[in-house]
């Protein structure tokens, strides 16, 4: 297999990867970035980004990522298409296989592979992507002021998103497949005591409808039971909050992860337990998952990589 030696390999092209590339480029580390499945990462699936500092009028997600890419390239980042398909972090130089056809031998690695929001797997989720279907209330909630939305999920994320959306929307349906919420007590109480939130226990969303975007959801109550009921509810927005899957599988044999798969780092730093290997952005962040926090941790990872190489 073809091999190539690089000083600093960055895997992922979201805000964490590109910010790491800007800093690593300016530090003369000649970073090589492999973009992953989705050039620009999760933000390229968002329409408007209004909470990234520096854009008082907001900016389109794809446009923001394009700007970050150009900024990284300006400082010499070599940004390439390709997906990391295997890793060997057992000895230096660390080896990352790209698309099962090429091996990069890297002195330092910044893992910025992100996380992927889970979807239910309905055809309609794809049909209405960007037209009423979202997996990020903080990103898109603002567009549903005084409108009716539904959130799917019964965990802390779903409760948090439902509460957040209730501060904007006129009504929020929380669609929960079980007869109870999995979320922590405090989050459950917040949801149950919010007049704008109606919790639909034992409900599954099985489809969406609408002419120009989402206008409603097809629901099934007590699916598969003798008293199963099917009905529709009018909504303007459909939010998935059924968990995220961090893209960390290939690193798991070498790095510590939590039970979900988030890479564990030394608290307050992007350092993993393997010297010279850093994790930045959503792949190591179950808590904040914001573009700006991802960018910040990408910056930290690049500074750490530079210091590591100096040693
Ligand atoms: P969780 O895995 O905790 O919850 C996922 C929820 O989605 C569950 O209610 C689950 O239902 C439901 N779900 C999963 N798949 C489907 C499906 N196919 N159809 C319908 N419902 C489905 O994920 P979260 O993202 O909520 O939380 C992840 C972690 O992050 C947790 O540890 C959580 O505590 C933490 N967190 C903490 C916060 C805080 O403390 N402020 C905020 C956000 C997250 P079921 O219960 O039936 O499996």
Give a quick summary of the entry:
By secondary structure, the chain is of the alpha/beta class. It is built from seven helices and 19 strands. Residues 120, 152-158, 160, 177-178, 182, 242-243, 286 line the site of NADPH dihydro-nicotinamide-adenine-dinucleotide phosphate.
Can you walk me through this structure?
The protein has 311 residues and is an alpha/beta fold. It is 24% helix and 28% strand. It contains 7 helices and 19 strands. The chain has helices spanning 15-26, 61-74, 123-127, 137-140, 156-166, 185-192, 291-310, and strands spanning 2-11, 32-34, 48-49, 59-60, 78-80, 84-88, 94-98, 102-111, 115-117, 133-134, 148-152, 171-175, 197-200, 203-209, 216-221, 229-234, 237-240, 244-246, 277-279. The strands form 5 sheets. Strands 1, 2, 5, 6, 7, 8 and 19 form a 7-stranded mixed sheet that branches. It has a 5-stranded parallel sheet with strand order 10-17-11-12-13, covered by helices on one side. It has a 3-stranded antiparallel sheet with strand order 14-15-16. A hairpin with a 7-residue loop joins strand 15 (216-221) and strand 16. It is elongated. 43% of the residues are buried. The mean pLDDT is 96.
């Amino acid at each position: 297999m073809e091999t190539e030696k690089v000083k600093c390999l960055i895997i992922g092209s979201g805000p964490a990867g590109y910010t790491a590339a800007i800093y690593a480029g300016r530090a003369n580390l000649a970073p090589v970035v492999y973009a992953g499945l989705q050039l620009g990462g999760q933000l390229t699936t968002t329409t408007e980004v209004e909470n990234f500092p520096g854009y008082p009028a907001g900016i389109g997600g794809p446009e923001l990522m394009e700007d970050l890419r150009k900024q990284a390239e300006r400082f010499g980042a070599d940004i390439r298409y390709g997906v990391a398909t295997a890793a060997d972090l057992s000895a230096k130089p660390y080896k990352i296989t790209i698309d099962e056809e090429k091996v990069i031998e890297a002195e330092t690695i910044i893992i910025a592979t992100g996380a992927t929001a889970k979807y239910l797997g309905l055809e309609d989720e794809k049909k209405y992507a960007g037209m009423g279907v979202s997996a990020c209330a903080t990103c898109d909630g603002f567009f549903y002021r005084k409108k009716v939305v539904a959130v799917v999920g019964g965990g802390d994320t779903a409760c948090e998103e439902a509460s957040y959306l209730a501060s904007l929307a006129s009504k929020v349906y929380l669609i929960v497949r079980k007869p109870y919420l999995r979320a922590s007590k405090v989050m459950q109480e917040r949801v149950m005591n919010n007049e704008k939130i109606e919790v639909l226990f034992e409900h599954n969303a099985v489809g969406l409808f609408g002419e120009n975007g989402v206008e409603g959801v097809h629901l099934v109550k007590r699916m598969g039971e003798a008293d199963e009921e099917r009905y529709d509810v009018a909504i303007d927005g459909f939010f998935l909050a059924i968990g995220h899957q961090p893209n960390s599988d290939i690193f798991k044999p070498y790095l510590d992860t939590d039970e979900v798969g988030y890479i564990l780092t030394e608290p307050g730093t992007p350092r993993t337990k393997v010297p010279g290997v850093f994790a930045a952005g959503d792949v190591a962040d179950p808590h904040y998952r914001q573009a700006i926090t991802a960018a910040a941790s990408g910056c930290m990872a690049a500074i750490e990589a530079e210091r590591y190489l100096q040693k």
